Fold:
Amino acid sequence: MANRFDKTKEVKVDYTRFVVPFGPVHPALKEPISLKVTIRKEEILNVDIRLGHVHRGIEALAENRNLVQTLYLVERICGICSHSHTTCFIQALEEIGEIIPSERALYLRTLIFELERMHSHLFLLGIMAYEVGFDTLFMFAWHVRETVLDLFEEITGNRIHHSMNAIGGVRWDLPPNLAEKVNDSLKKIEKSVKYIQEVFQDKTVEKRLCGVGVLSFNEAHELCVVGPTARGSGVNMDIRRDRPYAAYDELKENFSVVLRDSADAYARTEVRTFELLESINLIRTILDKLPNGPISKEESILKLMKKIPEGETVSTVEAPRGELLYFVKTNGKEGLWRLKVRTPTIPNVLGLKPMLIGSEIADIPVTVASIDPCMACANRITVVDQDKGEKKVVNCENLRRRGKKQ
Amino acid sequence: MNTIMMLLITFPLVFFLSLLFEGVDRKIHARMQKRIGPPIIQPFYDFIKLFSKERIVPVTASSRIFTAVPMIAAAASIVGAAIPIASLILEIGIGGDLILILYLLTMSSVMVMIGGSSSGNPYGAVGFSRKMTMLIAYDVPMLISILSVSFNCLSLAYYNIVSTQVGMKSLLAFARPSMAVAAATFLLCIPAAADAVPFDISEAKTEIIHGSMVEYGGPYLALVKLAKAASNFGLTFLATTLFFYFPALLEGYASVGLGALCLCLVPALILLLLTITVPRTVFARLKIGQAFKFYWLSPLALSIISVALSTLGF
Structure:
């Protein structure tokens, strides 16, 4: 029997490669995501993606609240696509309760939806410019975004969390003078968007974006990426067209799905700039077509909530970042058995690995930004003690106990 | 006695001017971006505030190098920027001080680079390797362009080149074609030496969190920032006086001395705005390979052309 001490263990240390932690706190990231990037010189050899730094237990919270409270809770999942979340949730409730909102309410929902898409895309274009070190374009894009936010404030009273949706309708109407104002602002925005489009064709910007973070059509298809990330890789999908909701069924003719084949960061950016123009056209059509009628049901929301029976359904919308999916199971007693949220970032973040491997460190921020990640969706908190090298997972129970103590 | 007083004033003057230039740069950068921007004396506020902050040395850093380096960097770049000013005021030329000035101005970025790599932070290491590559890219054309100047004026003393311009009653860059090419090379190298945006690869904020400067904070950061401001000021002042010495166009008293120094500051500020502020407003950051290619294609070729022209006597 060989002595186990006979063999000397050979340890090979490769000094040419080292691991750079990218995040959870990093100036290029809007929200915490942790990438452990193995690099050799400037080339990326491997990527390890970790999520879960902003887990807030919203799904569990929703199970302890009634439906109207949950409506405002899901709005807080994301600050950028708050309207997408409430629309998706409210659609599920309306389907279970067989409540049909009025035409005008559906059109107004769509209007806010498209404004939100513009606000989100302008936000991302600014971030993209910032990642490539083009601060001037970043400032300009956010300046334009401010116009959209002002419109939100005029229409709904809030800039970010609009609280527009209610069961069976919307909460605020759009008087004609406001519609005119929206039209005026759209002219300004259209001009600026065209300018942004031109600037993105600038040589130095193009150099940084073209051929960076390539996600081929097949990979995009296999990983089920959604939204502009998928459309940038040539995957023809858009929930607005494929599974119409709100007023999109009647507006089908008024927008086209923007597709690009080059599958790089530039393609994803281009998809977004063109979608901005599509959104502008769509909003103009909505303002023209806006039907008359009530914006909500006569019954109070609490009465409507009590009417919603036990049932379950799946609801999807095309959020600015891609397909947003809700699974809702009501218990018939004003509450929920289960709420499952699948935000567009969850499939999109998987695409990061094939995009990053083989590229340079300088491409990480651009690539990460190009999928427009929204990290407020994941699992557990991991506490790492660096001195002892320990890792332990803090679960929901620990958190609750700790919360009670303080 | 008077001479010593003058020399003593030079150092605070460089400190004041370099921070003031940085303030103007930041203000105009902001105005070009439709922002209001910080007040012009903001760099002074920053400097004072940073000095009142805690000194933090990371556990992983080799602390002696880490703490010594910002001081050496600040001292080197201030002395580097002070030499041209002092020799203008005192009207003295020392053989070979041109090499010394360039060496001291480069010293500050080399020192910051070393400090970053001694911090034990992987971003510092990446910043080090990037800055190293950039140094090779821009320093060679920069030195060759200066070499071409000294070929032309047959001197390596800074003051002699200035007095050559006074003697010619013309600006060096407009006097001979070889010098125009050398001036273009030098100006093209300034953004990289100053780490301004298209070439700020070594301290890209969104990529490697300021690279070498990642672990610096408090007084150390204040010194590092001062070193950068002073070297930016030094480089633009050097470029102005070597190639565009406007007082040379004037007669008599104003062409050298204290008055001439004051006259040079305005063109120096304009040059700073043109070579640092404007590029960092209108360009996006390049990648390291792209920047290297740019420097070894155009400025290096230009500098060699200028040397060739000056040996031919143009």
Remarks:
- The mean pLDDT of chain B is 85.
